């Protein structure tokens, strides 16, 4: 059987704020059968993850390229790989069979071909919506969990600040921190998000950073006794303001710097004298380095969701053609929670 | 017996590059006897430590003030406290007696009065010059030792970069790193210092940063396989260049940022995308938090010195009146090794 597979490509490298016109849809004829002896899978994509970090891979050149698969360069006109959940349509690999539900590195397309050795695992469907396997039970969740527990090394009662707090990772970090027994303040880009953080996610406080003129004073107001942990998703002035307001032995988990991704001249310049005198640690991390906590992450997270203690925020667009606008919208702060695109019904 | 005690004070707070004219000498009559019942010591200062960090305490206001005794504000016209070695002249504290050699927090003066509870310890003179108890066997040494072993967590064979490498701390970090089995490159501000690093201290390579126009390329040249550890004493562009050239899981010990002390607008703005993708840790620290390695520090250091494997660089000026120029000279890079002022013979 042959189908027409549609997929999204980048026209050229992107060095500033991405536009929908930076992308185009391509089509190709795809046979849904595998040649005998070929060790690969053909999968039909159900949900695809839309993540800010992908912009870094779309740039002309990054000094960090090739240091991790997360940073591997995307080439114009080629299929763009992305995390997602799919259904196996045809398998040339004994470990997988038709109709298996799989999660891992796919492409921004309706179908993906995954070679043997590709980063794909069978999904153990434990009664949650399939979309959960793209976000809260996948890398967004692990990033939040490992970042908070392994990098921030929290103690009960500590004061935690989370930026981009209504995003895929931030919304979980704040909730893990509350469940653990910390005082948590988040910032976001609209009053609607602020209300959600306080009313639905249980943050102690939240503020709309766009309404603030002096972030250092803002944080001083929300943390009169200082910040112990800053989970940074945005970089730039927010990081500087957080360092200024940190307590001794404060920790910064450097998870993302979305405010810098679209502007290569934009940088955080934290006061390093503060970093010394307050013995602050700033640590960059990637979830993939923390697979040793994977089991704990899954069991804790499943338990919290089942108990109704962890709210899962998903922001789902529909159809392949919505991928460019979904991606572009990340940098305008359009999404609330994990952004993904659904391509087909389960 | 009464003497005339001379001491150095600051005329006003100092917010830029310090000048000798920012200081003045004061004199006071001092009785060298202690009133009965008064729990204090009068000591005659022999060597006083001259350290860049003291400039931060002389500023109008630092957000880090009061977070540590190192950051306590100095007030104009008052005696400036500083680490040093002294001889007890009169004691009202049973644990000390006349002629004891003591080290700890003194003042930039010919005599100091130390109240009970002051940070003073008896020096166990183990056959080294007394000046060693101001630098290599005191906080400069502990800073280098704890910073390198506890913060940088080195592995044999790793590539280490040290800035201000001919300074009191840098010169020791580089040597500890060599003795431990690392590859070590240092930078300094003159050819004379560079020669010393390579010929006397055994650094693998060294360069004069003032002759370089693009520090990122310079470090790429000296570290074609990347930097694993950066021991930062200077901040600003050097920190940025080091982060750009770091390997995955690189560590930055943030020990000092002398290039920023004299210019509050000057800041390092390291690329945080690199920090994430390369999982870099940047950690500020103070030696005083690492007293648990003190015994190891002393025994290792003494052993290395006695074996002729660790060179001790001391840069000694003479007489109280030389304190302002000694201090001001730190920010011009005048000193080679530990800067101190000798006030009296042993």
UniProtKB/TrEMBL annotation, chains A, B:
Domain of life where this protein originates: Eukaryota
Stored InterPro entries: ADH-like_C, ADH_N_2, ER, GroES-like_sf, MDR_fam, NAD(P)-bd_dom_sf
UniProt keyword annotation of Oxidoreductase present: yes
Gene Ontology molecular function: oxidoreductase activity, acting on the CH-CH group of donors, NAD or NADP as acceptor
Keyword list, A-Z: Oxidoreductase
Name assigned to this protein: Enoyl reductase (ER) domain-containing protein
Residue ranges occupied by any Enoyl reductase (ER) domain in the UniProt entry: 16-341
